[in-house]
Structures are given as structure tokens and as C-alpha cells.
Write a structure and sequence with these properties.
The complex is a heterodimer. Chain A is mostly helical. Helix content of chain A is 61%, strand content 5%. Chain A has a single domain, classed as Glycosyltransferase (Alpha/alpha barrel), CATH 1.50.10. In chain A, helix 5 packs antiparallel against helix 7, helix 9 packs parallel to helix 11 and helix 13 packs parallel to helix 15. Chain B contains 3 helices and no strands. Chain B starts with a helix and ends with a helix. The chains are: A mainly alpha, B mainly alpha.
């Protein structure tokens, strides 16, 4: 009896300590979830260090030049989204963040930033505007950055570029039977397309233009053709000829797509978040994680998912933070931020294991806005 | 008792080391070793590896310390109850 009670006490002590660690690592969660100015400012200041740094492809070294370029580009995009979201939440940050956004957009538009896309297509994306090549791996992401920049600063010097990019993508999407555009020749990824879907919603809200019919068609296609009926998750990659899935449904792609969709289609974004919650999210003693592959399938992960450990994906776990904030899911936000903080090791807004991309992603995701904030503009 | 104090002391050292390594990892961009193992330098890989080891190991130590002290408290309560009876 005495031995059993000691063992039970040890077990309870162990579990409570782990729970306490989760609470400690998630201690900033409420301030971030509630959008407190100082918490967001700290993240923005940490991002400033990367925005001001002379980053190039060499800072990523994924082992493939294309991915290095993609990661550098997505770092800039996430910086823009983070600055824009915080500027819209706290108008006193608007002037300072608008300048940072312009700086990041200049970097995104630079020839070296377009190189990864140019190398894949054999043509430059900006020279192809108005043409027949989609370039959604570059132009889709760029369109979202340009659209949110316009939402922050309607007279931004990048407005003309926003109009040109949007015109090209609208024209290509209207002509697409699949309802999806090519990232690279012969490669179609639903998640990449959701950057443009999100951008088009912001564009309409900011300019008063009405692409409602196209947006509804694109969302409906995404929902009916590219969502796995069993899990409700999005297929990672589809066939460019007939839209048939070439890869299974995945946690990282679905979570990121749901975040991008929160800029234009709150209902679909929420539906994807619910699908993730239903079958992919796990909470263990206060730490939240997300599966990369729906059970019972598994895998080791790739450049999109990051490492997959015991079925839980690093990218998927992080991306859910943005969804949780956008859809008011405080408990999930807290649990996933605790995991990100535990393994990321935050130091004054930056992260020991974040690097430019990790810091930028967490900046954007922890400051994600509810869909209503974009619709209401 | 000595075990409990030693565990608590090692946990505190691990927490201090963790803080130090986190700062060093940020300064050296050790994240490269985690996000793109193929392209990281030996220094970055070493710092990232030691940081993760200390972080996970330190958390384990904290939990073990809590477990040891919880069990010790219950044992002490049993002794006190036996003496009272």
C-alpha cells in the first residue's frame, strides 16, 4: 500500500510537471491570442532583424536550389502578412509596418527572388504577365503579399503591380477547367492556389471590384474535387490533366491552405480547420501536435512537412497556430504555441530553432486575423 | 533526500544551460541544422543538437525531480502517520 501510493504520487508529480512545462511554454499564448500590442510588437521587432538582413538563397541550404529560393520567398511573404495583420489590428503600427512591407515587397520582386520560378519555367514570371503560363508558385504568393499590402496602404507604390498580377491570375483562373493553376510546368498543388484565392478576396474587399462568381467557382471546385471525402483534407498534389490526386491528403498543406483561405473564404477555411481538428490534432498534457498523414497512413515527411516524428508533423503543428487564432480556437492555439515554443526555443521573439523562415512563419501565424476582419474592409 | 536535492540542482543547471544555448543558437542561426540538415555547418549542427538534447533532457529532469519529490512527500506522510498511530 505504502509503495503503491509512493509510485502513484511519483506518477502524478511527473505528469503535473509536464503539464506545468506546457503552461510555461505557452505563457505568451493568451497575450498573442488576444492581440496585445506589446506581444505583437516583440514579434515584429524580431522580424525586423531578418527583414533588414541581406538574406539570400544561401541562408537556407535545403540541398535543392529551387527549395532554397522558395523558402527565401516564403520568408518574405510571411513577413508581409505578419506586418500587415499587426498593422490592421493596431493602427498605430501602420506607418512603420507599411515601410517594412514595402521593403519586403521590393525583395520579393527582385530578379533574384524570381529565380527559382524562372529556372523552373524557363521564363520570367513578370515578363509572362498577360501570357499563358500560370507561375502560381511565384505569382500566387506574390499576389497575396501585394493585396494585403494594399489593404494596409491603399496608395502604396506597389498598387500597379498588384493590379497587373491580379489581372493575370484572374484571366488564367477563369480559363482553367481544373479550377487550379500550375505552380511549375506539369505540377499542380491546391495549396499554392489558395494564396491567389485569398488574395482575390482581399483585392475585392479593398478595391470594391466583384469577382464573386469566380471566387465561388474556385472555392466550390476546391471543396468538391480536391478534398479527400474520408478526411476532409486537401490533396497535396493533383494531375494537371484531369485533377486526379497524385498524392494523398496531408496535414501541412491543408493547414496552410486553410490559413490562406481565411483571407477570402472564412467558411471553407473553418471547414478545413474542423477536418483537421476531427482527425489530425492531438493534445498531450498541454502540448498540441498535428499529424502530417491521416491515420493509418504514415511517412517520413518531405521539404513541405518538415520532420515527421511519431506521425506528428513539424509544419502541420505550426500552421495550425494561425488557423486557431483566425477561428477563435484559444485552447488549440495555446497547446500548439506551447509545442512550438518548447522545440523552437524563443529568445526575445526569435527562435533558437526557427531561423528566418521559422521566425517569419510564427510572426504571421500568431498574428493571423479572423476572416471577418478581411471581409469587413 | 540527497537524490532529490541533486536532481533539483542538475535541473537548475540544465535550465540555465538551456537559456544560454538558445541565445547561442539564435546568434549562429543553428536552425539551419534542423530545417535543412544537408546545408548546415558543423558548428550549427552541434549547437542545434546540444540545444535539443539539453531542452528535452532538461524537461525530463524537471519532471523526474517533481516525481521524486512527490514520492518523497508521500513516504514522509506515511512515516508521520505511523508515528502518530
Amino acid at each position: 500500500m505504502r509503495r503503491a501510493s509512493s509510485l502513484l504520487a511519483a506518477l502524478i508529480g511527473f505528469l503535473l510537471a509536464v503539464r506545468g512545462l506546457a503552461a510555461w511554454h505557452g505563457r505568451d499564448a493568451d497575450a498573442l491570442f488576444d492581440g496585445e500590442l506589446e506581444a505583437q510588437r516583440e514579434r515584429a521587432r524580431a522580424m525586423d532583424a531578418w527583414t533588414g538582413a541581406d538574406l539570400d538563397r544561401g541562408d537556407f541550404s535545403t540541398g535543392a536550389a529551387r527549395f532554397d529560393g522558395e523558402w527565401l520567398f516564403v520568408t518574405r511573404l510571411m513577413a508581409v502578412l505578419g506586418y500587415a495583420q499587426t498593422a490592421l489590428e493596431h493602427p498605430e503600427l501602420r506607418a512603420e509596418h507599411a515601410a517594412r512591407i514595402d521593403e519586403s515587397l521590393d525583395a520579393m520582386l527582385a530578379p533574384e527572388a524570381r529565380a527559382f520560378d524562372r529556372e523552373a519555367w524557363g521564363r520570367d514570371a513578370l515578363s509572362d504577365l498577360g501570357g499563358v503560363r500560370d507561375h502560381v508558385g511565384y505569382l500566387g504568393y506574390l499576389s497575396l503579399a501585394l493585396a494585403v499590402a494594399r489593404a494596409v496602404s491603399p496608395t502604396s507604390r506597389h498598387v500597379e503591380m498588384e493590379e497587373r498580377v491580379m489581372r493575370h491570375l484572374v484571366q488564367r483562373a477563369s480559363a482553367s477547367e481544373l479550377g487550379l493553376l500550375e505552380t511549375y510546368p506539369g505540377e499542380v498543388y491546391p495549396t499554392d492556389n489558395t494564396t491567389f484565392f485569398g488574395a482575390l478576396g482581399v483585392h475585392d474587399a479593398v478595391t470594391g471590384e466583384d469577382h464573386g462568381a469566380l471566387r465561388r467557382r474556385l472555392s466550390r471546385r476546391l471543396e468538391t474535387r480536391y478534398r479527400d471525402p474520408r478526411t476532409g483534407l486537401l490533396y497535396q498534389r493533383v494531375d494537371p490533366d484531369d485533377g486526379a490526386p497524385l498524392d494523398g491528403p496531408r496535414g501541412s498543406g491543408t493547414a496552410l491552405a486553410a490559413y490562406f483561405l481565411s483571407f477570402s473564404d472564412g467558411a471553407l477555411s473553418l471547414a478545413l480547420h474542423r477536418s483537421l481538428r476531427a482527425g489530425m490534432l492531438t493534445r498531450t498534457l498541454g502540448f498540441g501536435t498535428a499529424r502530417e498523414y491521416p491515420a493509418p497512413s504514415g511517412g517520413w515527411g518531405d521539404v513541405d512537412s518538415g520532420p515527421v516524428i511519431l506521425g506528428q508533423g513539424v509544419s502541420a503543428t505550426g500552421f495550425v497556430i494561425g488557423l486557431a487564432r483566425a477561428h477563435g480556437d484559444r485552447e488549440t492555439f495555446r497547446a500548439h504555441l506551447a509545442t512550438a515554443s518548447f522545440f523552437g526555443g524563443p529568445v526575445d521573439g526569435r527562435h533558437a530553432l526557427g531561423g528566418p523562415l521559422g521566425d517569419a512563419l510564427l510572426f504571421a501565424l500568431t498574428t493571423a486575423l479572423p476572416p471577418s476582419r478581411w471581409e469587413a474592409r | 533526500m540527497k537524490t532529490g536535492i541533486a536532481l533539483a540542482a542538475i535541473s537548475l543547471v540544465a535550465l540555465g544551460l538551456d537559456r544560454l544555448l538558445a541565445g547561442l543558437a539564435v546568434d549562429t542561426n543553428a536552425a539551419a541544422a534542423f530545417l535543412s540538415p544537408g546545408g548546415a555547418s558543423v558548428d550549427q549542427a552541434l549547437i542545434a543538437g546540444v540545444f535539443l538534447l539539453v531542452r528535452v533532457g532538461g524537461a525530463g529532469l524537471v519532471a523526474l525531480t517533481a516525481a521524486w519529490w512527490s514520492a518523497a512527500l508521500v513516504r514522509a506522510a506515511w512515516r508521520a502517520a505511523r508515528m502518530t498511530i
